[in-house]
# Entry
Amino acid sequence: MFYWIGRTTYKARFFIVAVWVVIALVAAPLASQLPSQLSGGGFEVTEPGESDAVGEIVANHFGAAPIEPVLVLGGEPNSVTEPQFVNSLKSVVAAMEKLDFVQMVSSPLSPNGDAFVSSSKTTAYIVLHTGLNLDEIQNKTHAINEAIPSDLTVPAYLTGTGAIYSDITEVSESDLRRAELVTFPLALIALVLVFGSLIAAGLPLVMAAVSVSTTMAILYTITFVTDVNVFTLNTTSVLGLGVSIDYSLFVVSRFREELRKRDPADAIEIAMGTAGKAVFFSGLTVVIGLSTLLLLPFSALRSMGIGGTVVVAVSVLSAITLLPALMGILGSRVNKLSVLRRELGESPIWGRLAHIVMKRPIPIMLVVLVFLLSLGSPITQINFGLPNEEILPANSQSRLGAELLIREFPESSAPIIVTVSDSDGIMNSTNLKELLDFDKYLNDMDYVTPVPNLTAMAENPQGQSTLKLLSSTPYTQWPKQLVTNTGLDRAISENHLAIRLSTELGANDAKLRSAMDKIRNYEAPSNLDIRVGGTAAAFEEFIDALYSEFPRAVLIVLAITYVVLVIMFSSIVLPVKAVLMNLLSITAAYGALVFVFQQGNFSNILNFDTSGYVDALLPVLIFSILFGLSMDYEIFLLSRVRERYLETRDNTDAVASGLAKTGGIITGVAAILVIVAGSFTLADIITVKAVGLGIALAVAVDATIVRGLLVPSSMKLLGNWNWWAPKWLKRVLPDDNFISH
# Structure
């Protein structure tokens, strides 16, 4: 089939190039519009959990909507009573009330406005009630910022989930542009060093530009059907640049190798029949790896999976159609504009290394295994968390606003909210005793303080009389002024009590998770329904949902990959070894994530603040991207080994020859992918930085230690068993796929 593709693309080379030129011209303007269509949501758990129930109670009964935009004013030693502060506040409120999508503005100027002023009297906040969903708020962020008066004498920061996601979108786009500025010049230098020719070196970059641009245009059209998450932009770009250059390198290098002894038509046919086939199966394994994301119950992860799948599919399609067509037009001119005298062929260094390793396979394999497992060992200390505003640069407006809000109004951003409900009425004389017991239980816990503090109220005569009055009076007859003055209107409704646990700990802190478990273990009377919600609870539920599905998705991916490799290599042993070695590389990357981003090593070099946890999404993203990418080198290497083995039936010679023939080109490919992925470590978004580092490290390990030492040592030990397949499999696949023993 792939030999036929080579012949066909050569015959129709001018037509194929013309079609791709039209595709590129149509795609370019659409691709440029993709960032404006990306959303920040999609991480909601499919099945609503306990935290969702708490959020619904709080929103319906206490007028709190956690996603609404918030403007925070102050943070400087100015009193909110000073004229300049009051004038700035009035100016902002008036401007916000003029926005057509704002239904109401709650501020210090509203009734009960004291709740919007910090205890230090230096900061105030304003809530914009819009009734919009998260994506709609994100799209309105620019309009809100534009409406903020420019002549304010007090700093004003727009924050809230929508504003944070909007800033993430902007910073991600900036990160991508910076990475591209770094990547393309360095990749071109690396390609010139590999090929020695500007023409040959330029082909992979052309393929990368076409593939990524076309993919972004396709994703732009998909945004009209379903939401596409903002991180899809970065993951798709790094993956598209990497695989496009990879696949082009292998095809171009094989074409140039064959061109030395054949005419262009035959060289393209051979190149597509060998390297083209390897590209197809390699792309298939990458797509299978990305299907991990499609199997998880989060639309944001699925959109990243869709983006990755599309870019790999487009890269493979362009590599087996556009690339051979361009090579057919260029012919021997592919070697023009030579800047280095470089002949691609067998690398004696890699061949000698293979022979050295195969003379002492057992000790070398054991040393490598110990080293790789040591790299991955920090994974045993992994602590999962979910990022919020802290993944943004320190000078981001939404982050500054969120941090100021948390510092000055800890109760308004409490990571744990506990609701106590009774359908027959929450405040009565019987329930009051139980509520005070529960409140005392919360007061006795470490690291958290309940707000309102019913225990503290009951310890003074005025508070005690207030609680007794409310518990003995029907809810509809409660003295409104009394409830408002005590602030209980924001915590008690007819059937619900909402307690916010003020704390200095972050929502990802393990101590808070222990506190939530302790609250859930409280033995309450059967009529009281106690539920735990808030940011910390929502994070915990997300992580639990993610990792309850992730192992199953991994097993499915491993099984499908194994079947594909069996079909390609006509062996049931070799695919097992390939999968295990792939997992070793990924484990090393996981260990690096913990060592760097959780434990904070090299944080000064990589320019980030240590969070004390690993973003729970990272292991999933790293696996889905790396599993297929790492398999690339295994497939290209073993394809050449198998070619040689079919000729000689000598396993040792085949391994050495395969490593010698692919050593130089795989080194170049890996170096370029490390450059592409490594450029994303310059990102301001920590998640993007971590993905780039994880991929770069795993590829470097896989292309050097695994390929140069572990592959030849393990294949030497297995001998002819590398190529063994049972009789029943020989009946399923064509006879010429198999090697006789």
About this structure: The chain has 27 helices and ten strands. Confidence is low (pLDDT under 50) at residues 735-741. The chain has three domains: 2-40+166-390+540-737, 68-159, 415-533. The longest strand covers residues 123-129.
